[in-house]
């Protein structure tokens, strides 16, 4: 009996010990990686970054060439002036101080009895400015190259705000909030995807939201034409602008 | 003689104890195993292909960052040459040089410095009550755009979020849980830098009923964390290296 007792105790201890070991190694097995997300998303991001890299490389080539041109033409006044004028013309396009013509969409947002009859509430139009700058934001986030609101060009410094129900300002210029035309040149399909949610927002304010495609290249976005002066910002390394 | 009962009693007692211990251990083990299993179920399985893609993505992102710096440097060199050309030759239409500088700042191409402010916007990290909507506690694309709009109304001349310059064609959009500015992913905390009249900008942001109150006050239904804007005599905002939604080729 005594021996049997000892044997059984030994067996039980052995069992317990091995179970604990197994348990320990199971619980503390390290996980190496918790950053792995959806493969589809990763591949999409990778494609974007590859495109970006391609562009960056071509941009570096272009800039290096331009630096060379400037250095080579240092003595030749006329050629240097021409190179700078060409550059200025391109930069004006990027800054939005030159008109841009192309394919795109025209969005009209108008007060509508139908939208009010369907439950739209004009008093909600107090947040019209909010939805307008979000709309422009979503056009830009979906491949718009140039945008105007009531023929006021949207640039980097643009802002939109409602001073009152009847005073809506774009680039600090008053426009009529009852009927607003927004033009955008860019990738039509992508911009329309970006506009998905917006018709509903404006209908809730009692406004109609219509999109018209322009595919014959005739849509013109005017240039920003108010004077711009930088009083605070200056190029890094410059003393005074 | 009480010999036999005593021995039986000892055996019973020890067996009982062993059983109790075993039972306890087994139940603990079971519980632990379930916890482990749950934790493992929550984590996605390691897919070597996804891991490879992730590594590749990180590498190419690093490379692109290097290329961006190179582009910024080249743009600065170019700006320097243009200025030099104008300085050396007074007949070389100085307005071309000045316009080049002005429009390069306006478009967002050129890195700029000047007096300005910085502040940080972050999701609310505190425990979110079960009856409240999580969406009220996290930062949305529309919140960031609202702040940008407000800064430009207050006269900002250049703005960046996490180093992404606001340009002519900048979009701030959420795709799923990702925030993208200039088509580049940025993550919390969102650091705003703006050049302009610091007092004007701070007043506009902090005014009663202003945008900071709107986004951080529970009575307005939002719970973001925004640090008070800090004024600085010089802040630097990087240039934009991208393609202006395909405008630049």
From TrEMBL, chain A:
Pfam families: DUF881. InterPro entries: DUF881. Residues 46-80 form a coiled coil. Transmembrane segments: none annotated. Keywords: Coiled coil, Signal. Residues 1-24 form the signal peptide. Belongs to the UPF0749 family. This is DUF881 domain-containing protein.
UniProtKB/TrEMBL annotation, chain B:
Residues 50-91 form a coiled coil. InterPro entries: DUF881. The chain crosses the membrane at residues 12-30. It holds the Pfam family DUF881. The keyword Coiled coil applies. Keywords: Coiled coil, Membrane, Transmembrane, Transmembrane helix. Belongs to the UPF0749 family. This is DUF881 domain-containing protein.
């Amino acid at each position: 009996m005594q021996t049997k007792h000892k044997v059984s105790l030994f067996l039980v201890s052995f069992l317990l010990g091995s179970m604990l070991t197994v348990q320990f190694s199971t619980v503390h097995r390290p996980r190496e990686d918790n950053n792995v997300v959806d493969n589809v998303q990763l591949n999409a991001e990778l494609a974007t970054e590859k495109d970006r890299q391609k562009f960056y490389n071509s941009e570096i080539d272009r800039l290096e060439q331009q630096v060379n041109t400037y250095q080579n033409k240092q003595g030749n006044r006329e050629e240097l002036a021409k190179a700078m004028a060409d550059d200025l013309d391109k930069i004006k396009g990027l800054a939005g101080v030159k008109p841009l013509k192309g394919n795109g969409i025209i969005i009209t947002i108008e007060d509508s009895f139908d939208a009010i009859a369907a439950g739209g509430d004009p008093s909600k139009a107090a947040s019209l400015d909010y939805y307008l700058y979000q709309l422009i934001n979503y056009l830009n986030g979906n491949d718009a190259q140039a945008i105007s609101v009531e023929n006021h060009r949207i640039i980097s410094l643009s802002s939109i705000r409602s001073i009152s129900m009847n005073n809506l300002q774009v680039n600090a210029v008053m426009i009529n909030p009852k009927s607003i035309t927004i033009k955008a040149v860019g990738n039509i399909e992508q911009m329309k995807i970006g506009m998905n949610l917006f018709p509903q927002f404006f209908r809730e304010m009692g406004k109609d939201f219509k999109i018209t495609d322009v595919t014959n290249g005739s849509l013109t976005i005017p240039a920003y034409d108010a004077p711009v002066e930088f009083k605070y910002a200056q190029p890094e390394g410059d003393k005074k602008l | 003689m009480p010999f036999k009962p005593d021995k039986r009693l000892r055996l019973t007692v020890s067996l009982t104890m062993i059983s109790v211990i075993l039972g306890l251990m087994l139940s603990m083990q079971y519980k632990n195993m379930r916890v482990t299993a749950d934790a493992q179920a929550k984590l996605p399985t390691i897919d070597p292909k996804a891991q490879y893609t992730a590594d590749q993505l990180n590498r190419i992102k690093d490379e692109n960052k290097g290329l961006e710096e190179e582009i910024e440097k080249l743009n600065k060199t170019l700006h320097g040459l243009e200025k030099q050309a104008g300085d050396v030759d007074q007949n070389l239409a100085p307005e071309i040089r000045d316009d080049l500088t002005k429009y390069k700042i306006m478009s967002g191409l050129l890195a700029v410095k000047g007096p300005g402010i910085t502040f940080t916007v972050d999701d609310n990290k505190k425990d979110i009550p079960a009856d409240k909507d999580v969406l009220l506690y996290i930062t949305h694309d529309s919140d960031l755009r609202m702040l940008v709009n407000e800064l430009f109304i207050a006269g900002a001349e250049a703005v960046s979020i996490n180093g992404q310059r606001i340009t002519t064609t900048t979009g701030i959009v959420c795709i799923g849980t990702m925030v993208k500015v200039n088509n580049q992913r940025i993550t919390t905390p969102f650091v705003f830098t703006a050049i302009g009249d610091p007092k004007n900008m701070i007043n506009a942001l902090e005014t009663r009923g202003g945008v900071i109150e709107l986004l951080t006050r529970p009575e307005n239904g939002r719970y973001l964390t925004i640090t008070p804007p800090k004024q600085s005599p010089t802040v630097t905002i990087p240039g934009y290296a991208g393609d202006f939604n395909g405008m630049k080729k």
